[in-house]
Amino acid sequence: MLVKSKKAADHVKDLEETFSVLRKYKLKLNPAKCAFGVQGGRFLGFMVTQRGIEANPLKIRAIIDMKAPTYLNEAQRLTGRIAALSRFISKSAKKSLPFFKTLRKAKTFEWGCQLRTHSGRRQKQLPIYYVSKVLNGAEGRYTSIEKMALALVVTARRLHPYFLSHPIGVRTDTPLKQTLGKPDTSGRLK
User: For residue 135, which of 147, 117, 119 has the smallest C-alpha distance?
Assistant: First the structure.
């Protein structure tokens, strides 16, 4: 459990609120595992700092220090470690595609999508998160507009908390809005 407050003055109030909920449901914390007033640290395999959630340097070092995979189980181990850090790697599906091809021993098609946020003051767009997916089976035969719609669905599922709490804008060169608004769209787009 992690309790973070925007202001130091609010932190005690936030802790009291958290403890009252724990008491209400009769949950107990292990004092040996509790840390109060820390600026950051490891939490659930990630680094939590004032800047937000970051990749754990120990996990990055483990990937860097790994020898090049020569057997199938080594490639599986590497892809598992990369998948654990994929939220911090831009275009992770593209970069890890050779490993997936080795594991699947089949031809696959990949795509990546980038979610951007709109800053109202300077009208500058910056990437806030990268989401990628390897298309398999019938997904590889989708039309470009269907792939774009699939990208939005996958992104909305993976980044559900962002979609609930922030206004999201999608920029694309495909006429996605007009296509989705047509009554005669294909079954996959409905």
Answer: 147
Which two tokens mark 100? 């997936």
10 Å Cβ neighbour count for 113? 19
pLDDT tens sequence across 4-30: 778 878 888 988 999 999 999 999 988
Q: Of 94, 90, 96, 93, which Cα lies nearest the Cα of 77? A: 96
Task: Give Dmax (Cα) for the chain.
Answer: 61
CA–CA separation, 6 vs 1, rounded Å? 17
Tokens of 184: 């005669």
Spatial contact of 75 and 82, defined as CB atoms under 8 Å apart = no
Q: How far is the CA of 36 from the CAs of 17, 25, 40, 43, 78, in angstroms? A: 15, 22, 10, 13, 35
Hey, how many other C-beta atoms are within 10 angstroms of the C-beta on 62? 13
Domain boundaries, given as residue ranges, for the chain: 41-88, 90-189
Q: Which of 108, 115, 97, 110 is nearest to 153 (CA)?
A: 115
Gap between the Cα atoms of 147 and 138, Å rounded = 11
Dihedral angle over CA of 140, 157, 130, 53, nearest 10: -150
The count of C-alpha atoms lying within 13 angstroms of the C-alpha of 162, restricted to the half-sphere facing its C-beta, is: 14
pTM (2 d.p.): 0.41
